[in-house]
Amino acid sequence: MEMVEEDVVIIGAGIAGLATAVALRRLGIKALVLEKSDGLRATGAALTLSPNAWLALDALGVSHKLTSVYAPAKRVFVTNLGTGATRELSYAGKSGRIGSGLRSVHRQSLLEALADELPDDTIQFSSKIAAIDSQTLNGSSAAIINLGDSTIIKAKVLIGCDGVHSMVAQWLGLSESINSGRSSVRGLAVFPHGHGLNQDIRQFVGVGFRAGFIPLNDRDVYWFLNRYSPPKGEIIVKDPELIQREVLEKYDNVLPPLYLDVIQHCDLSTLTRAPLMFRRPWDILFGNLSKGNVTVAGDAMHPMTPDLGQGGCSALEDAVVLGRHIGNSLIKNKGHIVISGDNDIGQALERYVKERKWRVTWLVTGSYLSGWVQNAGSNWLMKFLRDVIYYKFLFGWTANVACYDCGKLPSVSLGESDSSNPGKID
Fold first, then answer.
1. What is the assigned CATH class of domain 3-178+279-425?
2. Where are the domains of the chain?
């Protein structure tokens, strides 16, 4: 049995975990990131980053790596498959707060852009968490992380970025995420000789489902299909070939040939199918999102359905806000992050939670309701809610939630607190 002591431990090397590590790195604090997989996981193939995400990436100093590669999408077309009518929507948001626009990126590219900002020994892969505990000695608390290989890590700060089924969230006492009653199929289509599509986002809405595709570059197209699951759930088929065949057969006479052609070009290694999970908004608002020197970020805090496209975006916001509050504590304590007394790390994490919980509660609520309305049934009331109320009046609000600036990281110039000589945690 090996005992290791670390200042900051982040569990999970997804978007939230890597972004948080980068934020801390900018403050001169080195974190250890524990990842259960043997490499960076890009499940989901791609994602769309809204203006708020690009502002967060600006604060982290990595946005330029992606904006130079991925072009913005300026138009969104939504086709009602019942009537055949196509509506053009704008995601521009509020004037003057549009960041780098709406751009869709390969998830792997985003993860690599973040990981490249970290020292080589930051991420420890194949690290499976067996248990989490806490220890208090002489008024100071520490998180105890037990790994599957019998290694024990004693951390002065623990940040859970370990996804929908977070062990850290469970340790904090947060309720389990629940099934939204819908599932999603996602994949990446590859056209070796080019797809010839415009840089537009296209969605197709039918009874009980919403499908769409988004070109990433001249060759790759990200596509998705969100649909209601049977009341008692559904068997989630894992075989990509069977998933592709099922979608093509079931929607052959429903979805347009252009969309079906995208599915037929799917790289099966990127194709996934999973239930859409979320945490009840009141559990976020009133739950324990931090305790002492432990907190959560990203899906570990606020799993949400993808209907506003804010899962990854809000995770990037979390990283900047968390970094800012830790950085402010660092400044107040002259380059030290203290774990007891005034302006200690626990108080910094409480301030982070206070700032984040209302926004992410609204995002979770808005995402769920947006999906519920857009996947509406065929009766007149649901059609009215979707086609008149939502798209004419509420869609603008859902787009504007993406025009949000989470702020900047503080400038920490206290001698020893720089990237080469990390701040001390006492």
1. alpha beta
2. 3-178+279-425
